[in-house]
Amino acid sequence: MPHTSITRRAALAGLATLAVPLGSSAAALPTSTAAAAPAAPAEAPWQFEVGQCVSHEDQSMPSLVLSRFRAGNAKGNKLELYGVRSFAANDPHRDRLMVGDSLVDVVPGSAPCQDCLLYNTGMCPNRPAAA
Fold first, then answer.
1. C-alpha dist (Å) from residue 28 to 25, 73, 112
2. Which residue in 57, 37, 131 sits closest to 101, CA to CA?
3. Closest Cα partner for 108 from 53, 46, 48?
4. Distance between CA atoms of residues 57 and 104, nearest Å
5. pLDDT in tens, 40-77
6. Cα–Cα distance between 37 and 15 in angstroms, integer?
7. ∠ at Cα 99 (93, 100), nearest 5°?
8. Rounded to whole angstroms, how far apart are CA atoms 4 and 21?
9. Is 100 helix (H, G, I), strand (E, B) or coil?
10. 3-state secondary structure of 114
11. What are phi and psi of 67, to 5 degrees?
12. Per-residue DSSP letters for 11-71?
């Protein structure tokens, strides 16, 4: 079998057949003939807000919610996942991705709140009101 070299021109020609020409609209793309999908149900409220103080349900892990997203699988199982940054005094792993079911809200002044490095600082979202 003879060896055929692939030139830049041949590669670009192959890509051109796959690409939508510049200036064309999305209407030019092929569409399915299936009926339109029903409207999505209203999004459920989040268990925790971004910027909220949380902790682990089994141990003191004062943390701040930095990000959140929902995930699921074909069986219909749904999870809320939260990106949290730990502010415990001694924690070698500051950033974690946690399942929402294992997190609890931190009550201002509680033990996890007092273990937090942000407690009584100007950056604490649960800081005591100035007298």
1. 6, 33, 57
2. 57
3. 53
4. 6
5. 566 789 999 999 999 999 988 999 999 999 998 888 88
6. 31
7. 115
8. 28
9. helix
10. helix
11. -155, 165
12. HHHHHHHHSPPTT--GGGS----SPPPPPPPPPPPPSS-TT-EEEESSS---EEEEEEEEE
Are residues 79 and 92 in contact, defined by beta-carbon separation less than 8 angstroms? no
Residue 100 has pLDDT above 70, yes or no: yes
The tokens for 18 are 């796959």
8 Å CB contact between 63 and 97? no
- Cα angle 39, 83, 87 (rounded to 5 degrees) comes to 150
Q: What are the CA-CA distances from residue 43 to residues 40, 48, 117 (Å)?
A: 8, 14, 34
> SS3 of 9, please?
helix
Q: Are 95 and 35 in contact (CB under 8 A)?
A: no
Q: Rounded to an integer, what distance in angstroms lies between the CA atom of residue 104 and that of residue 65?
A: 11
Give the pLDDT mean for 1-9: 50
CA–CA separation, 124 vs 117, rounded Å? Answer: 9
pTM of the entire predicted model? 0.62
Q: Are 124 and 118 in contact (CB under 8 A)?
A: yes
